[in-house]
Amino acid sequence: MKKSLLLSTFLLTAAVVFAQFNMQPPTSSVSFQEVDFDVHADSRLIYNGSVPVVLRWEIVNVSGPKEWGIYTCLGLACYSPGQYVGLQTIQPNDELIIQAHILPQTVCGTGSYDITFTDTTTNQVVATGTFNFQCQSVSTSNPASAKPGAIFPNPAITWFSVGDTPGAHRVEMFNIIGKQVAQFPYQPSGRYDIAQLPGGMYLIRVVDQQGRVLSSKRMSKNTP
């Protein structure tokens, strides 16, 4: 009788915790072209509880071309490609913005993955989001269809990368009043360190050796 009562109490507690979380939408899908550098499908985890909860997030059930890179952004934090698990604290009556990213690497295909959230106190899965990716092939011979200078992650926190840009020589970074705050030698697939810069909106320009602008993109930087 005592064991039965304890089991019933545990199941009731788990059910209450689970009911406090709501994934909107539970399934998110996005279409893209193989020339796209960074693609993401979006969702939100809504928490209606009354106390902060530490969740363990994990990327599972991955399918798609092996060349695809995978990373996720949760709230203000964007994790490095290849990091499939981590911890995230969510506050009472808060919403956690979820961006599930892929880096197609010019490889077309279809794929998906799930992100699960587990309450670290009860070790119960409280929410799962499914993210689907569908490539629509286009001819890469058309220069207008390519996206040189694409930036990821965006928003960034401590670093960013720039997509393949033929002829690029350096990467310039400007704040909202037009002052140049950083400059980097261009490195294909390289990471540019911006940890020391304050949060805000920036303009990222990729220029050639003669100083001609090859691409100009806006990037938001969040603080850790």
Bulk shape: globular
Count of distinct strands: 17
> Which CATH architecture of the largest domain is right?
Sandwich
Task: Report the C-alpha radius of gyration, rounded.
Answer: 21 Å
H/E series: HEEEEEEEEEEEEEEEEE
**Percent in strands:** over 45%
Structure class: mainly beta
Count of all domains? 2
Helix content: under 10%
What oligomerization state is this entry in? single chain
Number of helices: 1
What is the rounded distance between the termini? Answer: 50 Å
Mean pLDDT: 84
Fourth-tier CATH superfamily name of the largest domain: Immunoglobulins
Strand order of the largest sheet: 1-3-8-5-6
What is the CATH class designation of the largest domain? Mainly Beta
The biggest beta sheet reads: 5 strands, antiparallel
The low-pLDDT segments are: 5-16, 139-146
CATH topology of the largest domain: Immunoglobulin-like
Ordered list of secondary-structure elements with their pairings:
Blueprint (H helix, E strand, L loop, with lengths): L1 H18 L1 E4 L2 E6 L6 E9 L5 E11 L5 E6 L2 E2 L6 E6 L3 E10 L6 E10 L4 E12 L15 E2 L6 E4 L7 E5 L5 E6 L6 E2 L6 E8 L5 E9 L3
Parallel strand pairs: 2-10
Antiparallel strand pairs: 1-3, 3-8, 4-7, 4-9, 5-6, 5-8, 9-10, 11-12, 12-15, 13-14, 13-16, 16-17
Could you list some keywords that capture this structure?
224 residues; mainly beta; Immunoglobulin-like; 2 domains; 5-stranded mixed β-sheet; 1 helix; 8% helix
